[in-house]
What does this fold into?
Amino acid sequence: MHTVVCIKQVPDSAQIRVHPVTNTIMRQGVPTIINPYDLFALEAALELRDKFGGETTVLTMGPPSAEDSLRKALTFGADRAILLTDRCFAGADTLATTYALATAIRKIGKEYGPPDLIFTGKQTIDGDTAQVGPGIAKRLNAMQLTYVSKIQTVDLAARTIEAERRSEGGVQVLRTRLPCLITMLEATNQIRRGAMRDALRAARSPIEKWNAHNAGVEDISKCGLKGSPTVVKRVFAPSARAQKAVLVEAAEQPERALIDEIFRHQPKLEAELAASARDS
Amino acid sequence: MTNVTKVPATPAQGRASAKKELPEHFKAYRHVWVFVEQERGKVHPVSWELLGEGRKLADKLKVDLAAVVVGTEGEATFGAAVESFCYGADLVYVVADPVLADYRNESYTKALTDLVNTYKPEILLLGATTLGRDLAGSAATTLLTGLTADCTELDVDADGSLAATRPTFGGSLLCTIFTLNYRPQMATVRPRVMAMPKRVSRDPGRIIVHPLGLVEDDIVTKVLSFVPDRESAKSNLAYADFVVAGGLGLGSPENFQLVCHLAAALGADYGCSRPLVQKGWVSSDRQIGQTGRTIRPKLYIAAGISGAIQHRVGVEGADLIVAINTDKNAPIFDFAQIGIVADAIGLLPTLTAAFRRRRGTRAFPSARLAEGGARP
Ligand SMILES: Cc1cc2nc3c(=O)[nH]c(=O)nc-3n(C[C@H](O)[C@H](O)[C@H](O)COP(=O)(O)OP(=O)(O)OC[C@H]3O[C@@H](n4cnc5c(N)ncnc54)[C@H](O)[C@@H]3O)c2cc1C
Ligand SMILES: Nc1ncnc2c1ncn2[C@@H]1O[C@H](COP(=O)(O)O)[C@@H](O)[C@H]1O
It folds into this structure.
């Protein structure tokens, strides 16, 4: 079985700070990590490989420094890592990203055998759109299963997969055809620690770097900023509320003072809360 | 500060000045569409919220607002179509076919993109639900147009382009995104981000029925079964009128119970900040904020929550925010209306008792009757 896992290197946004006065992002020194959601995809792919044999290829599109994330994926046990990197990919929105990634996945198929399954995370913590997975599937003309919580069976001979998918009001159990793109739901597995020999291999093995040409991109105008229909026109900080909270101060029975203030502020609430408390 | 990279006033490569040069063949694209999402006969309320928002955009552009209803043949689908008029739609497009009974990406993408290619809307809005995100991503790629996810604000600029604002950089900043030269301009919005419009009883208007053009054999993906969530396991947090939530300041899962007790006394729902989910103290459907639920209650009480921006964006729609925090400089006091600098672990039980007492003695007459008198 050949699985391809798309991972993205993202800034650890828990550590991003916005300068309170200049309203600028303090990005420098913020460590980068593999998008946490992608680790569930990677683990799911590795589990299938362990069960069925074959290989897991990890793929990322990003700056040369994204190599770190690929190396990390190799330490977890991925067999091969490919870095898609080219200036012309810069500034890509989701549509341009899916064009580049789908093109590279086709090329991976040619070089190393067509993938049976392609995995992405549910979403990224920086882009946070959850669109790249479905977009890749569409471009590859592959089936797609999003928000998968469990892969029940894969039948390589019959070319089918059965999986559980989270929907708004329950869980759908679906059967579809390979090749299929899966976006893996979070907290469905736990990324392995990786064996010592994988760590050694990861440190030694070269990371394949493809530019647009090597990846088989035929139309540069579909890449990066040029290929992006969306345009970010303005970046700004959320406005502060003009007024700060009224602070309730009471040395004795602060709870009563607080309740009085709540009902003074919103007199209707008293009756509404009464009704709500009665019903519950 | 040395480690500050200036966010360019004109973002990367001068796109602030990007010009609208709409190709000729897109000029026929007109009107605002809202995808009305229904699953197993139930319309997701986010669809009505979007019709409310779509109405404003359509009025500004002086165009029609259309609802798109896709589903199986029968009452539920046409019921949703008729109901769409009550939430502001001028007309409704319906694709009804038995193969659309369950949501599947292939069939729904075909239904939606065929409609778009035939009737050419300039704006298409979907809810950022699991269904909406699955569908929006593949529809936008099929149509080769721009899609802005999880918007918190929608507007049209002087040019008549959709200005879609969403959080960026993990929520620390907002950005406004345009799809200048492609149509339709697509956006998704999370449930509860937009206000629910008032339902106005109206006779149904024009309903346009469009064929699907697929039979079951054409659809590769098969639904083997559907296991609905247990009713009791569902949290209705997003749509609750009263919410009490706790954060890391509570210190332990045991103390989090104090939040649940207050919620029970008020007939409120309970929620939490993200770290509590990450620690496994509270289940993830209780998380409030950018990567959890967006809430719009009449009253929100936050205990031991600092008020990080990612939390704030999920609660700003509340009518009244009350914060309990030991740190008078906590950011939550910047957007709460009422605050108290106090130890939540001490205050929550007395607050719960005081609310109960108040119910017993002053207001709540019928509650008193029902319960046979005042409580201690
Ligand atoms: C991409 C991204 C997405 C995120 N999404 C979300 C999200 O959806 N929702 C969310 O909530 N967070 C989210 N976060 C996390 C967010 O940035 C904050 O880290 C988080 O909200 C902080 O939780 P907290 O307020 O409970 O904890 P803290 O920030 O640790 O605050 C605890 C507060 O409790 C107060 N306190 C301490 N002891 C007491 C006491 N005895 N009584 C009263 N007060 C006390 C402290 O003064 C402090 O203000 C996200 C972060 C990122 C990077
Ligand atoms: N630049 C990238 N390189 C590789 N994979 C990506 C990239 N961007 C997004 N993805 C994948 O697509 C998923 C969804 O991303 P997003 O649409 O940005 O939320 C992620 O979890 C990744 O698996």
Summary: The pocket of flavin-adenine dinucleotide (ligand 1) is lined by residues A 13-14, 125; B 170-171, 247-249, 273-275, 287-292, 304-306, 308, 310-311, 314, 324-327, 330, 343-345 (CB under 6 Å). The CA atoms of residues 93 and 228 of chain A lie 5 Å apart. The domain at 2-222 of chain A is CATH 3.40.50.620 (Rossmann fold). DSSP finds eight helices and 15 strands in chain A.
